[in-house]
Design goal:
91 residues, mainly alpha, 2 domains, 79% helix, rod-shaped
Length: 91
Amino acid sequence: MFMRRRPLLRAAAVGGGAYALGSRNRGAREREADQDQQIQELQAQAPAPVAAGGGGISSEAVQKLQDLAKLHEQGVLTDAEFTAQKERLLA
């Protein structure tokens, strides 16, 4: 009688462990599927990205702005001079 209980107990323990592991994996898969669905819904709701740029600024104007920024960082141009030049280029 004792010999028979041990294999049944072992089988019950293995089966119970497998069931618990399977349940946990199923729950994880369901959560991941829900997250994927939420991500897709949010991406569908996201507004279209706004085109970067300043309304058709030429590459020459961009280069001049970069040069002005370097001069401003070096201290050659004051804040007021930099702002004035920047507005002149962007106008």
